[in-house]
Design brief:
The protein is mainly β and about 350 residues long. It is about 0% helix and about 35% strand. It has a single domain, classed as Glycosyl hydrolase domain, family 43 (Tachylectin-2, Chain A), CATH 2.115.10.20. It has strands spanning about 30, 50-60, 65-70, 90-95, 100-110, 120, 125-130, 130-140, 145-155, 160, 175-180, 185-190, 200, 205, 220-225, 240, 240-245, 260-270, 270-275, 285-290, 295-305, 315-320, 320-330, 340-345. The strands form six sheets. The protein has a five-stranded antiparallel β-sheet with strand order 1-5-4-3-2, with no helix packed on it. Strands 6, 7, 8, 9 and 10 form a five-stranded antiparallel β-sheet that branches. It has a five-stranded mixed β-sheet with strand order 17-21-20-19-18, with no helix packed on it. β19 (about 270-275) and β20 form a beta hairpin. Mean pLDDT is about 90; it is low at about 1-35.
């Protein structure tokens, strides 16, 4: 891509001073909260000087830290396997509160610094334990198979130092690391199509495995408890059951409800909330259960389809309020050049969540 920033509409001309999406020497700070954004959107992009997606948000030391993908235009042709999402590094964002000034802390980890790297740094997550911050990331190895790696730092913004090998027994994409009330950590992960989850059956890899057909049971997301070192699995990877109200597993043809990618776990009033993207139908759905392993019963749509093909989110509580982080393509209009946003999240008295609509 030449030094041009794609704009979705002329109403976004205020952003024309933004840097090139491939520029890794980003400004330290940026905020769009005072910018004149397009009024059809409920929220405006948190930053405009780089393209960001798949925001995993956490509160560390009283501050919100966001661990997103960093979209760039690499010129790779688009396809259903997502080869055009060829991310090379991670930038970590932070802010004192929602609506406050956003800081870009620069490059926290680059693919060239990961010993086992092949290509494509996709959606990451982070956790804090043992006096250390851990960055978890999916990456294709030198055989073009997605594994999940881990890197460490003494500060939440990094820079992070990667381990020499991926987590043993890990595979596919979209790690989400959840800390339960007893201090245990669990990793949720998986994504079909380009995320390769369809190639894994009983934790064994089959490069020839196919996607499920309509009347077959849908592929299930995965979970494993993390070891005390936060760099290994303490147990074999398990499947997570997502059930309808009658207690039945979804079939592939139930693609408005079945799992596709983008797992996230949070807890509210003692219940476990497992949320995820349906992919080709573009919903973010949620299901609830009484154990971190499930089963989880489908409850509804948490985030209605956004502008752009993909949908990926995270949920946090800050100062007694709940927030949903997500992305769309307001700045570029292109699926592989996205921007992260945040909106309030509201629970009903029965624990259900009100659907968020990203456009008015």
């Amino acid at each position: 891509m030449t030094r041009t920033v794609f704009l979705f509409a002329s109403a976004l001309a205020v952003f024309c001073s933004c840097n090139d999406a491939e520029n890794t020497q980003a400004p330290t700070t940026d905020s769009t909260n005072t910018a004149a954004g397009n009024s059809k959107y409920v929220s405006q992009p948190l930053v405009t000087h780089i393209y960001t997606a798949d925001p995993s948000a956490h509160v560390f030391n009283g501050r919100i830290y966001i661990y997103p993908s960093h979209d760039t235009a690499t010129g790779t042709p688009e396809n259903d396997n997502g080869d055009h999402f060829n991310m090379m590094d991670y930038h970590i964002l932070s802010m004192d509160s929602v609506g406050g000034k956003v800081t870009d802390h620069g490059v926290a980890l680059h693919v060239k610094d990961i010993p086992w790297a092949g290509r494509q740094l996709w959606a990451p997550d982070a956790a804090f334990a043992n006096g250390t911050y851990y960055l978890y990331f999916p990456l294709k190895d030198k055989k073009d198979v997605f594994k999940i790696g881990v890197a460490t730092a003494k500060t939440p913004e990094g820079p992070f130092t990667p381990e020499k090998e991926p987590i043993k027994g890990s595979y596919s994409i979209d790690p989400c690391v959840f800390k339960d009330d007893d201090g245990s950590f669990y990793m949720y992960f998986g994504g079909i199509w380009g995320g390769q989850l369809q190639r894994w059956n009983k934790n064994k890899y089959d490069s020839a495995a196919k996607l499920k057909q309509g009347d077959e049971l849908a592929i299930l997301p995965r979970v494993a408890k993390l070891g005390a070192d936060m760099k290994s699995f303490a147990e074999p990877v398990k499947e997570i059951k997502i059930l309808d109200s009658a207690g039945n597993l979804f079939k592939e043809k139930n693609n408005d409800k079945r799992f596709f990618e983008a797992a996230w776990m949070h807890k509210y009033n003692g219940k476990y909330y497992f949320s995820y993207s349906t992919g080709d139908t573009h919903n973010i759905c949620y299901a609830t259960g009484d154990s971190p392993y499930g089963p989880f019963t489908y409850r509804g749509v948490l985030l209605a389809p956004v502008e752009g093909w993909t949908n990926h989110h995270s949920i946090i509580e800050k100062d007694g309020k709940w927030y949903l982080f997500y992305h769309d393509v307001q700045l570029s209009g292109k699926t592989h050049l996205r921007n992260v946003k945040v909106a309030p999240l509201t629970y009903n008295a029965d624990g259900s969540i009100q659907t968020v609509h990203s456009q008015k």
